[in-house]
Design the sequence.
């Protein structure tokens, strides 16, 4: 089973700040890494697929990069509405697995 | 418009059985895999398993193999997650999500399940 480790677990940030969340895989997964956003009491939403492809309708301040074992989600100029927990998930091999999540709090 | 609509909240006692549903619409239901994902209270997302409604090919996470059963009825565009004997530790929100080439683009609203004596 591929283990995904996100860092940090929690981050308190101010609006307009640039935020970087990392996801490290226990073995190479190519670009089969996707990022999801979950706001309180809502279903997760897809932000980025295949490491760097933005999903339709997602604001351009969200971007992704990486391949192999190391991946990054970047939020440029954070907005108040971006307060949420962010998860990475791999689809390289079964069982699919999620990272433990990174909670962003807006100061 | 693609929609995944799940059945409503459930409150059950330990040992009871339960079957929750997820209805897909706005696309060819038989041709897309559907994932089930668990979220225990205050915790992260856990991938449980996946089914291809076209031929009912089903794969489970080792963590959930034997604990739940995933099925689908393509004639009515609905996938199911089933327990034969619930435990308190099954208390969680369960999500279904359409799966295309490994990516969950569309999610259901979640079904809260509470198991308590």
Sequence:
């Amino acid at each position: 089973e591929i283990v995904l480790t996100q860092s940090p677990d929690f981050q308190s940030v101010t609006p307009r700040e640039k935020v970087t969340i990392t996801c490290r895989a226990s073995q190479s997964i190519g670009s089969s890494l996707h990022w999801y956003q979950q706001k309180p009491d809502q279903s997760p939403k897809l932000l980025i697929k295949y490491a760097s492809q933005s999903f339709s309708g997602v604001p351009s301040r969200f971007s992704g990069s990486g391949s192999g074992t190391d991946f990054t989600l970047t939020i440029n100029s954070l907005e108040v509405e971006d307060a949420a927990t962010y998860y990475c998930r791999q689809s390289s091999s079964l069982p699919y697995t999620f990272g433990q999540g990174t909670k962003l709090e807006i100061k | 418009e693609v929609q995944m609509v799940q059945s409503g909240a459930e409150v059950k006692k330990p040992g009871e059985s339960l079957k929750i549903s997820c209805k897909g619409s706005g696309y060819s239901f038989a041709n897309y895999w559907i994932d089930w994902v668990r979220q225990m209270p205050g915790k992260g997302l856990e991938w449980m398993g996946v089914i291809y409604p076209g031929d009912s090919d089903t794969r489970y996470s080792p963590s959930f193999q034997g604990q739940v059963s995933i099925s689908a009825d393509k004639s009515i565009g609905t996938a199911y997650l089933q327990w034969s004997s619930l435990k308190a530790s099954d208390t969680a929100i369960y999500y279904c999500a359409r799966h295309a080439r490994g990516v969950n683009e569309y999610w259901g609203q979640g079904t809260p399940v509470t198991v308590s004596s």
In short: Chain A has no helices and eleven strands. The mean pLDDT of chain A is 97. The radius of gyration of chain A is 13 Å.
